[in-house]
Write a structure and sequence with these properties.
single chain, 290 residues, alpha/beta, six-stranded mixed β-sheet
Length: 290
């Protein structure tokens, strides 16, 4: 996990995950160094990640007062319970739906919840955070927000896009990605993450961008894109064209069997030459490696 600051009061905890056939998807969490510090999402739920430790390079986790969960997907909630333990005074900001979905695995402590709906605001001492439902999302419980002091929009999955390399996925600024590649990646992600966009009425869909147009944030902080300062209009224009787009279709069973066939033993090479005991199967953990 790579940690850096995009603004003096905003830290980015950058991570990424390889998605076979798509590329490297950025997975970001954020730290808002407000008077009452806010952590936005808590990273991947992988065994080798230690979210409180990574957060410690930005601030003492014990000083966190709010944990804003944009939605309950595991790439957003991986470190939530470790952070709750490390930040005993923190409360979790989320929708009722997010709290409900979390209870399927491990319930959030009710006394530490702060339920917020789109259109409502949270005062964190030196600024107000106003929740809204972004134009594109993969969970009906998604709660993005605007920060009225920094002028940033924390957009959850919306505006995301995969990149061809890990370095680009964890870049300091989205300007490092070629503009044409960025546009293609965002439209691809729209069809992967929000396949329902093929059915929307284009006029009504474009209207869902109005809250962002009105706020005109100078910085878009998506969970799945490097920080994007100064290009909000261009990002809106790109995603505005997604209405009616054909959803992405992943590999089916025939494709899986074709991939598996690549791991079948070569009849011309015996087990000794392969470097494994007779009868051992190939390591299927390497199935998704290129």
């Amino acid at each position: 996990m790579r940690v850096h600051k995009v603004r003096p009061d905003i830290g980015v905890l950058s991570d990424s995950v390889e998605v076979p056939g798509i590329g490297y998807l950025p997975v970001n969490s954020f730290v808002l160094l407000a008077a009452e510090p806010v952590v936005v999402d808590t990273g991947l739920g992988l065994s080798d990640r230690n979210f409180p430790e990574a957060l410690g390079s930005v601030m003492d986790p014990a000083d966190v007062r709010w944990i804003w969960l944009t939605h309950p997907d595991r790439d957003h909630t991986g470190g939530i319970f470790e952070l709750l333990a490390a930040a005993p005074e923190a409360r979790v900001v989320c929708t009722f739906g997010t709290a409900g979905f979390m209870s399927y695995e491990q319930p959030l402590p009710l006394e530490r919840l702060y339920l917020l709906n789109p259109g409502q605001s949270l005062d964190v001492g030196d600024r107000r955070l106003t929740g809204f439902r972004p134009p594109l999302y993969d969970s009906p419980t998604t709660l993005a927000f605007f920060d009225d002091r920094s002028g940033a929009c924390f957009s959850s999955d919306c505006f995301g896009g995969p990149t061809p390399t890990v370095d680009l996925a964890e870049a300091d600024d989205v300007s490092e990605v070629d503009p044409e590649d960025l546009e293609a990646a965002q439209l691809l992600w729209a069809t992967v993450d929000s396949p329902w966009v093929q059915h929307v009425d284009p006029r009504k869909y474009l209207g869902t961008f109005q809250p962002i147009r009105e706020r005109d944030p100078g910085l878009i902080l998506s969970s799945h894109l490097p920080p994007a300062p100064g290009i909000t209009g261009r990002l809106i224009e790109t995603l505005g064209s997604a209405a009616g787009a054909t959803p992405w279709v992943g590999p089916d069973q025939a494709a899986l069997e074709l991939m598996l066939s690549g791991f079948e033993p070569d009849a011309d090479i015996d087990d000794e030459e392969r470097g494994r005991p007779d009868g051992d199967a190939p390591d299927r953990d390497t199935l998704w490696l290129p």
